[in-house]
Write a structure and sequence with these properties.
The complex is a heterodimer of chains A (337) and B (328). By secondary structure, chain A is of the alpha/beta class. Chain A contains eleven helices and eleven strands. Chain A folds into two domains: 18-105 and 183-336, Rossmann fold (3-Layer(aba) Sandwich), CATH 3.40.50; 117-182, no CATH class.
Chain lengths: 337, 328
């Protein structure tokens, strides 16, 4: 198939950079209007690994699907832009162009690695499909797949001949990662890539990601509800709550001196295998109902440090230290003193 | 596999046995009626007995169990017996004459309705609330709910009686000479039109609804999202990712439907006096033609069991997740 929009693949300055500004995503039905992402601004730097952390329902997966422009209906972006280098705003490029970027410049790995492959098609054929879709040579594609599968510690000959059900969950996730890297994407989005796996496979996948970062020029967005998973691997961490980023900064700094009470809660909820058991504290309460209008700070009802002002004033992200922002009145006040 | 075949043979044997005894437990044995009729006409018991035996190949005074054994013996030699209704005509030749008409009419209806149902169902499954879905789904729901004898009766009344566009009965016109010639083939299609359409219209709804829901549920699966995330083209997604999966359950249904086809469509063939297996069965039942009924039930049973086996075997080939050991 002839290419209608040539996509440049050579690495240029700023490759892999993504600039999300004022993004809002709503799920609109006849009866309700739920804003799952609200006025979100976020920059992904070239070659960085950004961890996105939050409870389920905070909008982190919707953020991933927004970048892929694959938000499941009836959800749709209602405001904002996602600028991706020379390609422009991903929310407004033609669908055909966007589809060429998918799997080529931006790839995504899902939680359900168990079922991201066509169950009645051999892996080799599914690899060929990717190259065919992007107008590339299928034979060379299989060569590339062999290299990548070897890099993920799998036996390429066997995997390419296998059907998905013939592999274990951990193997399938490795294959999914190899497949996402087939066309050397600039951005790789991982949506809870380890949560469906056992602990040993989890560790192996994380190790693989570290290796991938060393070998390939790729920016990673790692989405998880597990703070412990990203704290040691990510360069920066963005904490999401109720469709907002409530804190963002360098991973070690966020982990050492969290400024938002929600971040503090998440960190306290990490079980420490060496420390005493009583130090684990789960957070009370539930995330707010996003189909209703939220007045004040969305975290206020659950916040242990809540003040009167929190219930009426909605805090914006403010720089607290260089490269460290938090959306909390108390944090802002502490900074001002 | 051996176990499956053994079960199949056992099933066939049971059906044969039940048919044999059930028929004879019903009142109104035609051979007895003939025998008493002859006695009344003044024949001697011996002569009447001999006559009935010569006519139907049955000794009415021998115990039922011995009759059953001799019937099994005949079956083992491929002999389905002689028709009660048409003496001197073997059941096999009756079946051989009726079978082509059923395979032709029901087979054509099945193929046409399955192809249209699957095509339209796929489109409707992809474009929920689209034009095809909005127009066809209510129609298909109604059609699949109406029994084919009702559709058949309405069609017969409208197109054969009131409008008189198409013939009311038979498989071909009186004047044409059977053979490979244009008037005969034309006549065959004209006569088959109403039965085929009545059958197809009813079946279409089922195929359409099944394919629509199968397509919709396949589209909702994660591997479709996965395929799209790899930037596959929409034709790749449709033909290589959605359809091979959404067609799987339909395929089994289709192979089973081929098996049930040999039962013919009793109602439709009777309404249009179409000389297929269904019509033959209807005649046999109303005239207590034991041997023909037994023969037809045997054929229907074998066809259904064989198609079940074939569907399972084909499924192993088509779905890599199913291995031979799971099924057989």
């Amino acid at each position: 198939m002839a290419r209608q929009h040539p996509i440049t693949t050579e690495a240029s300055s700023g490759a892999g950079a993504l600039e999300i500004t004022g993004l809002s995503v709503e799920y609109v039905t006849k009866r309700s209007r739920t804003r799952v992402i609200d006025n979100l601004t976020l920059t992904l730097q070239p070659d960085e690994m950004l961890g996105v952390v939050g409870e389920s329902g905070c909008g982190k997966s919707t953020l991933a699907y927004s970048i892929m422009r694959m938000i499941p209906p009836p959800g749709r972006p209602v405001a904002g832009a996602i600028r991706f280098g020379r390609h422009g705003d991903l929310l407004s490029v033609p669908e055909l162009y966007m589809n060429r970027l998918r799997g080529d410049r931006i790839a995504m790995i899902f939680q359900g690695a168990q079922s991201v492959f066509n169950p009645v098609r051999r892996i080799g054929r599914q690899v060929e499909d990717v190259f065919q879709a992007h107008g590339k040579d299928r034979r060379k594609g299989l060569e590339r797949a062999r290299e990548l599968l070897k890099a993920t510690q799998l036996d390429p000959g066997r995997v390419l001949k296998s059907y998905p059900h013939e592999m274990s969950g951990g193997m399938r996730q490795r294959v999914a990662i190899a497949m996402a890297l087939l066309l050397d994407p600039e951005i790789l989005i991982l949506d809870e890539p380890t949560s469906a796996l056992d602990v040993v496979s989890q560790a192996a996948i994380l190790e693989l990601l570290v290796e991938i970062r060393q070998r390939f020029h790729v920016s990673l967005i790692f989405i998880t509800h597990d703070f412990a998973v990203v704290s040691s691997h990510a360069d920066r961490i963005a904490v999401m709550y109720a469709g907002h980023i409530v804190e963002i900064g360098r991973a070690d700094e966020i982990f050492r001196v969290p400024r938002h009470p929600y971040t503090k809660g998440l960190i306290q909820a990490i079980p420490n295998i060496r420390g005493p058991l009583r130090d684990i504290r789960a957070m009370d309460g539930e995330p707010p109902d996003l189909s209703k209008e939220i007045v004040g700070c969305p975290f206020a009802p659950r916040c242990p440090e809540v003040m009167d002002a929190c219930r009426s004033y909605k805090p914006e992200l403010l720089t607290i230290a260089p490269g460290h922002e938090a959306a909390c009145i108390r944090a802002a006040m502490a900074e001002a003193q | 596999m051996v176990r499956r075949l053994g079960t199949a043979v056992l099933m066939i044997f049971l059906v044969v046995t039940f048919t044999f005894f059930l028929l004879r437990l019903m009142p109104g044995n035609p051979t007895l009626i003939e025998y008493h009729l002859l006695l009344k006409q003044g024949d001697s018991p011996q002569a009447a007995l001999q006559y009935v035996n010569a006519l139907y190949g049955v000794n009415i005074h021998s115990p039922l169990f011995l009759q059953y054994l001799s019937y099994l013996g005949d079956l083992a030699h491929g002999n389905l017996g002689t028709s009660v209704l048409y003496p001197n005509t073997t059941v096999l030749s009756l079946v051989a004459a009726a079978l082509p008409w059923t395979v032709f009419s029901v087979g054509l209806a099945l193929t046409v309705s399955a192809i249209f149902g699957i095509l339209m169902g796929t489109v409707a499954g992809f474009k929920r609330n689209g034009l095809v879905d909005t127009l066809l789904t209510p129609v298909a729901t109604v059609l699949s709910g109406i029994p084919n004898y009702l559709t058949g009766t309405v069609f017969l009344f409208v197109f054969a009686v009131v409008l008189a566009w198409l013939p009311q009965s038979g498989a071909y016109g009186v004047g044409v000479r059977p053979g490979f010639n244009v008037p005969f083939l034309g006549s065959v299609f004209v006569h088959a039109a109403l039965p085929v359409v009545s059958y197809a219209v009813t079946q279409f709804g089922g195929w359409y609804l099944l394919m629509k829901s199968s397509t919709a549920s396949t589209l909702g699966q994660e591997f479709i999202v996965g395929a799209r995330s790899r930037g596959l083209t929409s034709s790749q997604v449709i033909y290589r990712y959605v359809m091979p999966n959404s067609l799987l359950p339909l395929f089994t249904n289709f192979v089973l439907a081929i098996g049930f086809m040999f039962g013919g469509s009793v109602f439709v063939e009777s309404i249009f006096s179409y000389p297929g297996l269904g019509y033959l069965l209807n005649q046999a039942v109303s005239n207590r033609d034991y041997s023909t009924m037994e023969g037809l039930f045997l054929i229907i049973t074998v066809a259904v069991i064989v198609s079940n086996l074939a569907a399972d075997l084909a499924y192993i080939k088509l779905d890599p997740r199913i291995s031979g050991e799971d099924v057989l």
